[in-house]
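Consider the tokenized backbone below.
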């Protein structure tokens, strides 16, 4: 429960932030209003010229294989290049770390800057990012019924289940849903209310996540938002973490996990549900239900558990040959090396590299980081020699759990919630652009096995 002092502080904070927040949001909205018509005309002309141009083919294997590799979606915010990794609006993660604004005395990019870039396609100034931080702080108030919903859950309910339910219950605040119901918004303005809803949701997600964290693992109390702190710092403080290095880690983590083009489960689910004109709250809740699946959002936990099993088996005083033999024995027993390989990438995941660079700067002598580093030197060669992996290099999940553990964030069941808070920065701007470009409801054609057989027989 909030104390009387916290309630007064929250009220004062809201008044102080109101004017700046409104000005900042108006500036972002006007910037988008200048960009959207030009992009609409570009897409309209391109579709008119190339509507019947073939961009790929579909095999029976792809139809049964999760549609992997099929070119059938348009996502404006990011593209996953097999060699360069994820690119936000055409910029690599290395370029983001170099060019996005940082917090005062900080060394890692502000996620607010990534949000601005994903929405507008342009790098923000430091003033843009700071104003967006204040906008998010101003809009962070969560309705009491959402907080009560979380507090009424049993503490053993998985944090992702609580997260999805809380986001769904927050749908009561949707400006788009209200305007659509009373027919007060024209179709070409849908995107503006999607933008308002998305910024509101992104602002509230750290408060929701922190409430779940404190309800499940802590003492239940969540401090108020501090107007002078950025989005990541407020999130960390509300979870109870004050360490400046950890806050820097979270700025990096929330930036590099934000987007991964449109075909992954959380991004595609958000897009799919949003294509039915479900508002951003419902669409994002659907995306988070997908992220909760173990094949999508559980990988970093599995890596951490695997690393602990390595330590249990051979300890931390291993030799390179001992570690290499353990990896070979594990593969021979039919196991995989979690955190290695990727469906698209064909080199080391740049998100892994970003985290490795952070670890080299801040925890170079940590035993688990040493193990991760030694595996980085051993596993790709082993997997290449084995000959089964198309990509023997580490992905983002090979590193993130170790960093979180180092700073005392040991509640592994909460890791996917962190991922979810970050992913909002990518999938919600993409959803805004879906509406800005007037993309229709998604409705691909499905076939039965019998239908496929008959089709193939006629070829």
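A designed sequence for it:
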């Amino acid at each position: 429960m909030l104390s009387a002092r916290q309630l007064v502080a929250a009220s004062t904070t809201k008044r102080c932030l109101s004017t700046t927040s409104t000005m900042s949001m108006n500036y972002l909205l006007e910037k988008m209003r200048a960009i959207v018509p030009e992009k609409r005309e570009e897409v309209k002309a391109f579709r008119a010229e190339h509507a019947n141009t073939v961009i790929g083919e579909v095999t029976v294997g792809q139809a049964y294989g999760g549609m992997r590799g099929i070119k059938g979606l348009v996502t404006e915010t990011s593209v996953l290049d097999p060699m360069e990794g994820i690119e936000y609006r055409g910029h690599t993660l290395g370029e983001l770390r170099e060019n996005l604004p940082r917090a005062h005395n900080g060394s890692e990019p502000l996620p607010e800057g990534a949000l601005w870039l994903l929405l507008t396609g342009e790098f923000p100034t430091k003033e843009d990012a700071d104003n967006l931080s204040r906008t998010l702080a101003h809009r962070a108030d969560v309705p009491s019924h959402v907080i009560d919903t979380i507090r009424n859950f049993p503490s053993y309910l998985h944090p992702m289940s609580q997260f999805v339910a809380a986001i769904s219950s927050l749908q009561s605040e949707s400006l788009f849903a209200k305007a659509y119901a009373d027919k007060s918004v024209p179709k070409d303005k849908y995107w503006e209310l999607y933008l308002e809803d998305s910024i509101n949701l992104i602002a509230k997600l750290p408060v929701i996540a922190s409430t779940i964290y404190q309800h499940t693992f802590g003492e239940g109390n969540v401090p108020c938002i501090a107007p002078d702190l950025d989005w990541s710092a407020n999130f960390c403080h509300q979870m109870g973490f004050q360490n400046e290095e950890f806050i820097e880690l979270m700025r990096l983590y929330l930036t590099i996990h934000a987007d991964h083009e449109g075909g992954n489960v959380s991004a595609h689910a958000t897009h799919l549900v949003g294509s039915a004109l479900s508002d951003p709250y419902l669409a994002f809740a659907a995306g988070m239900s997908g992220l909760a699946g173990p094949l999508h959002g559980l990988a970093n936990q599995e890596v951490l558990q695997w690393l602990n099993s390595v330590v249990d088996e051979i300890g931390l005083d291993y030799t390179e040959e001992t570690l290499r033999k353990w990896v070979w024995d594990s593969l021979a027993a039919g196991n995989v090396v979690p955190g290695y390989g990727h469906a698209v990438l064909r080199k080391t995941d740049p998100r892994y590299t970003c985290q490795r660079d952070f670890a080299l700067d801040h925890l170079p002598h940590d035993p688990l980081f040493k193990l991760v580093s030694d595996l980085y030197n051993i596993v790709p060669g082993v997997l290449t020699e084995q000959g089964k992996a198309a990509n023997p290099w580490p992905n983002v999940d090979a590193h993130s759990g170790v960093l979180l553990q180092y700073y005392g964030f040991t509640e592994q069941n909460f890791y996917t919630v962190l991922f979810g808070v970050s992913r909002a920065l990518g999938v919600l701007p993409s959803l805004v652009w879906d509406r800005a470009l007037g993309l229709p409801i998604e409705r691909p054609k499905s076939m039965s096995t019998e239908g496929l057989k008959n089709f193939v027989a006629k070829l």
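The first strand starts at residue 78 and ends at 81.
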